[in-house]
Each structure stands twice: as C-alpha cells, then as structure tokens.
C-alpha cells in the first residue's frame, strides 16, 4: 500500500513538473515570436503624382470587374468571383487586365492576379515582370503573392482588405531567423504592398464588416457590393482630367485600353 501511494505521489509530482516546464517553454516561445521582425517593404514616400495614379488605377480594376459582374459564385453558373486586376508596366501604362475565372475553367488556381501575370508573360514571351505594378480589387492571397515575388513584380496596390487570406506579401517578408531556433529569413524579391488610397475601398471594407455571411466571395455577389463596384466604375469613367499634368497621358491611355476590355456575351 505504501509502495502504491509512493508511485501515485511520484506520478503527480512528475505531471506538475512537466506542466511547469511546458509553460516555461511556451512562454519563451511567445517571447521569441514577439521579437521576430518584419522585413518591411512598405513605401512611405509615394509621390502625390503616383498617389493620383494609384487612385485612378484602383478604380479601373473595379471597373474591369463590374463590366462582367457575376450575380452568384456558384461553380456551374458563373465565370468565377467578382475579383479582378490590372497590370501597369514600368512606364506607368496599363498593359493587361484579368478577372477571377475559377468556375469557368474549373481550376482553383485561376485567380485574377495569376491570370493577369501568366497571360501577359505568355503574350510577350517575357520571363519576368520586373518593375511592374498590379492593382487588384482584393488583397492578394499567398498563391498570387508568391507568383508576384517569383516574377519580380515591384508593387501591388489592393482595394478591399481580406481578413482571412490577406497580408500574404507581408507574411513572406517575416524574418524569424534572428530570434527563433528554427526560424527563417524573409523570402527573396520583396514586393511592396499598399492599400489603395481610393475611398471606395474603405467603404467596401466597412460594408463587408456588416455582412453576416461566411465567405468574402459570396459578399462580392451581394447588391451592396454591386452598388459600390458600379460607383467605382462610374468614378473611373468620369475621371478624364488629371490633377497633375504629367499623369494625363496615362489616364488617356487607360481609358482607351478599357474600351477593349472584353464584355460577356449575353
């Protein structure tokens, strides 16, 4: 009996010691996580002229999507999701556009940004997008962010914030090697990631916070979302006079380019 009591006591003490040790280990791990740094790629010196183009091109991305608005996100009855983007070259001209087409292609990789990059590289027989910028209606996911890095995209400007799949470029820039035993250096080829300065993007964010559904792609088929995309499209089409004279040629060119954006066959 004494031997049994001794073994039980030893077992209890062992559990207590292990628990304290585990708590201490986890505490150290949390401290390590707090010390990890973000190799920031944010650009704090965007010129006023560039801010105007960011505003204008972000509106254009919304307009491209609205031109082929999907009333649902069902696989068998839609192109895909109401997400799209435009590509701007290193001379600041729009050179390509694309929309999400995961349903019509039955291919879950066919996000707007992926299609944007692949189609341009294929058409130009080019290896990279060094110096190019992408304006997307929704914050890029990890897949699109990874392709942006591999193709050397310079910068992306996104409209709506994605609480679930966003901050992918920032996560790829996380540097944990200096503080964690098994940490990593930040991923090569940093891409600047900026929130669009246009007020519609903030309004879409605000409207989405009030949405009671589960998925962001379903929100993007609601009448509320459609109304905001329509508003952005109208703002883009009415934006004909540049605030800064050096931007007028880019604005004129973008409007001409937009006329060639494909509309669906009804």
Please outline the helices and strands.
Blueprint: H1 2-35, E1 37-38, H2 48-66, E2 84-88, E3 94-99, H3 112-124, E4 133-138, H4 142-150, E5 155-160, H5 168-172, E6 174-175, E7 192-195, H6 199-209, H7 216-219, H8 223-238, H9 248-258
Parallel strand pairs: 4-5, 5-7
Antiparallel strand pairs: 1-6, 2-3, 2-4
Task: Give an overview in words.
The protein contains nine helices and seven strands; from the N terminus they run αβαββαβαβαββαααα. It is α/β, with parallel strands linked by helices. The strands form two sheets. The protein has a five-stranded mixed beta sheet with strand order 3-2-4-5-7, with helices on both faces. The N and C termini lie far apart (about 85 Å).
Strand content: 5-15%
Major sheet attributes: 5 strands, mixed
Counting helices, strands and paired strands, the structural category is alpha/beta
Helix content: 40-55%
Rough outline: globular
Order of adjacent strands in the largest pleated sheet:
3-2-4-5-7
Identify low-pLDDT runs: 1-43
Sketch the topology as an H/E string, one letter per element.
HEHEEHEHEHEEHHHH
The total of helices stands at 9
Oligomer: single chain
Q: Write down the Rg.
A: 24 Å
Domain CMP/dCMP-type deaminase: 64-179
Protein name: CMP/dCMP-type deaminase domain-containing protein
Keywords: Metal-binding, Zinc
InterPro entries: APOBEC/CMP_deaminase_Zn-bd, CMP_dCMP_dom, Cytidine_deaminase-like
Characteristics of this structure?
single chain, 266 residues, alpha/beta, five-stranded mixed beta sheet, two-stranded antiparallel sheet, 9 helices, disordered N terminus, CMP/dCMP-type deaminase domain-containing protein, zinc, APOBEC/CMP_deaminase_Zn-bd, Cytidine_deaminase-like, CMP_dCMP_dom
């Amino acid at each position: 009996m004494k031997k049994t009591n001794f073994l039980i006591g030893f077992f209890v003490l062992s559990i207590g010691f292990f628990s304290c040790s585990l708590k201490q280990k986890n505490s150290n791990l949390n401290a390590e996580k707090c010390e990890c740094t973000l190799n920031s790629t944010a650009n704090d010196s965007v010129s006023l002229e560039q801010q105007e183009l960011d505003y204008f091109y972000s509106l254009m991305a919304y307009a491209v999507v609205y031109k082929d608005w999907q009333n649902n996100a069902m696989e068998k009855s839609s192109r895909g999701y109401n997400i799209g983007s435009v590509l701007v070259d290193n001379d600041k001209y729009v050179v390509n556009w694309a929309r999400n087409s995961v349903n019509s292609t039955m291919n879950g990789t066919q996000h707007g940004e992926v299609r944007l990059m692949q189609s341009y590289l294929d058409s130009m027989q080019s290896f990279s997008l060094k110096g190019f910028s992408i304006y997307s209606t929704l914050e890029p996911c990890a897949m699109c962010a990874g392709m942006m890095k591999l193709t050397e995209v310079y910068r992306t400007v996104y409209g709506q914030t994605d609480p679930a799949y966003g901050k992918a470029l920032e996560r790829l820039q996380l540097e944990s090697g200096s503080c964690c035993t098994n940490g990593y250096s930040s991923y090569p080829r940093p891409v600047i990631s900026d929130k669009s300065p246009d007020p519609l993007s903030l309004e879409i964010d605000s409207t989405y916070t009030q949405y009671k559904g589960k998925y962001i792609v379903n929100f993007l088929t609601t009448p509320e979302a459609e109304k905001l995309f329509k508003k952005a499209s109208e703002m883009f089409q009415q934006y004909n006079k540049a605030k800064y004279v050096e931007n007028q040629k880019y604005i004129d060119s973008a409007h001409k380019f937009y006329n060639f954006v494909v509309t669906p066959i009804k």
